[in-house]
Design a protein that fits this description.
Strand content: 15-25%
Structural class: alpha+beta
Strand order of the largest sheet: 3-4-7-6-5
Number of domains: 1
Helix content: 25-40%
Largest sheet: 5 strands, antiparallel
Shape: globular
Oligomer: single chain
Length: 205
């Protein structure tokens, strides 16, 4: 399965936009993956935390998000996780995939449908959890988080690692809920705008 994506390529504090249209598989089915998004990616390295497996390998320069089934091209091999489905984000230099499985920590917060405002609240809760995990005493000002992508350069790349993980977890949660189509552009905007807010406030040192 793969949805349309407006990718963000970050080079230092600067922003480049990469528009990715919906890809159609070889059988004409939009849910049929159109091939390996990372054909030269190399071996996967996987680790499990809180019963959720996450894998990464080298990227190939194309920025995109997608979902796939274990063993498919561009997907971690079968047996790396209990679940068969993965949510992946390919960066310029690395590809990260996270097992699409029930996340017990976030289950009580996850919206019951694909309502975008409800997911924005959930996204901010995930952001607060990421900040806490990085030892940062800061609460996301969710009311100030813009829903439309803000085309401004980052003042610093210090929060990239934090926001990249937030993006992957948000994408995985959307995949688990069957909401990737409804939320892909919103997650892109929220993540980059979050990075703008955090870097502007010098939150990550």
């Amino acid at each position: 399965m793969r949805s349309g994506w407006l990718g963000l390529a970050r080079t230092g504090p600067f922003l480049a936009l990469v528009a990715c249209s919906t890809a159609i598989g070889p059988g004409g089915d939009p849910n049929d993956p159109p091939g390996d998004p990372s054909p030269e990616g190399g071996d996967w390295e996987c680790a499990t935390a809180d019963e959720i497996t996450q894998c990464e390998r080298a990227g190939t320069g194309e920025r995109q998000s997608y979902t796939c089934t274990a063993g498919e091209a561009g997907c971690p091999p079968s047996g790396s996780a209990d679940g068969e489905d993965w949510a992946c984000i390919a960066e310029e230099t690395e590809t990260k995939c996270r097992e699409v499985a029930a996340e017990t920590v976030t289950a009580s917060m996850r919206p019951t449908d694909c309502d975008v405002p409800a997911w924005k609240t959930f996204f901010c809760q995930l952001a607060d959890a990421q900040l806490a995990a990085h030892g940062i005493d800061y609460t996301m000002p969710c009311d100030a988080l813009a829903d439309q992508l803000q085309l401004e350069p980052l003042s610093s790349g210090a929060c990239n690692e934090l926001v990249d993980q937030l993006e992957l977890e948000s994408w995985t949660e959307a995949a688990y809920a069957g909401c990737t189509g409804a939320l892909s552009q919103a997650i892109t905007a929220w993540c980059y705008n979050t990075n703008l807010m955090l870097s502007g406030a010098a939150v990550c040192q």
